[in-house]
Structures are given as structure tokens and as C-alpha cells.
């Protein structure tokens, strides 16, 4: 759950999971990806057998995560504005949160 909170916080700041600011909009304004709130609202986490995964299921989620073409005939080029970690490296805030959860779990069950 903490990973989802950190992901939402970086989304609101307009940064990728590593803290890099998203590319500005074509008009030079700061990108927020928050016009309707649908993408932000679709952010979720799911427990798996060996951990968890963060997801976004808005129809256009992948276009913003990876960049691509959109609009009629793919005429608009959308730059990558990554909001989910992609395996490049664990973002430092997520790493710290993960370590804290592990430590709490160990203390609870093995202290």
C-alpha cells in the first residue's frame, strides 16, 4: 500500500518514480496528467505470490507510461511521462518504505 501512496505522490508532483520531472506540455506548461483524474484514479496495487505489482488500467495508461502516438490517425506524439516503476531500479523512497515494512514484519514475527 505504501508503494501506491508513493506512486500517487510522484504522480501529483509530475515526476517519474526516480524523481525526474516529466517533459513539459507542447505549450511549455508543466505536465500533470490530471485533466479528468481517470489515470490517477486507476492507479492500484495488487499482491502477488512473491510481492506486489503497481498497475494503472485507464485506456491511455500505456501511452503516457511509455510514450507513443495518440489522436486521430496517431497524429499526436505523446512523450514518455512515466509514473510507474519499470524495473530500471527501485526508486529510493520505495526502497526505504520496503525496508521499513520488512523490518516491522521481522520484529513482529521473530522478535
Account of the protein in words:
The strands form 2 sheets. This protein has a two-stranded antiparallel sheet with strand order 1-2. The protein has helices spanning 2-13, 38-42, 61-66, 92-110; strands spanning 43-48, 51-56, 68-70, 76-78. A hairpin with a 2-residue loop joins β1 (43-48) and β2. The chain is elongated. The chain is α+β, with helices and mostly antiparallel strands and 111 residues long. The chain starts with a helix and ends with a helix. It is built from 4 helices and 4 strands.
Multimerization status:
single chain
Number of DSSP strands?
A: 4
Helical fraction equals 25-40%
Residue ranges: pLDDT <50 for 5 or more in a row?
none
What's the main sheet like? 2 strands, antiparallel
Write the layout of secondary structure elements.
Layout lengths: L1 H12 L24 H5 E6 L2 E6 L4 H6 L1 E3 L5 E3 L13 H19 L1
Antiparallel strand pairs: 1-2, 3-4
Concise account of the structure shown:
By secondary structure, this protein is an alpha+beta fold. It is 38% helix and 16% strand.
Main traits of this protein?
4 helices, single chain, two-stranded antiparallel ribbon, elongated, 16% strand, 111 residues
Amino acid at each position: 500500500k505504501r508503494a501506491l501512496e508513493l506512486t500517487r505522490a510522484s504522480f501529483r508532483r509530475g515526476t517519474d518514480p526516480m524523481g525526474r520531472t516529466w517533459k513539459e506540455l507542447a505549450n511549455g506548461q508543466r505536465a500533470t496528467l490530471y485533466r479528468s483524474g481517470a489515470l490517477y484514479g486507476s492507479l492500484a496495487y495488487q499482491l502477488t505470490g512473491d510481492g506486489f505489482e503497481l498497475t494503472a488500467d485507464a485506456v491511455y495508461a500505456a501511452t503516457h507510461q511509455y510514450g507513443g502516438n495518440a489522436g486521430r490517425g496517431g497524429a499526436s506524439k505523446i512523450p514518455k511521462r512515466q509514473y510507474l516503476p519499470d524495473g530500471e531500479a527501485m526508486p529510493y523512497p520505495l526502497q526505504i518504505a520496503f525496508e521499513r515494512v520488512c523490518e516491522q514484519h521481522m520484529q513482529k514475527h521473530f522478535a
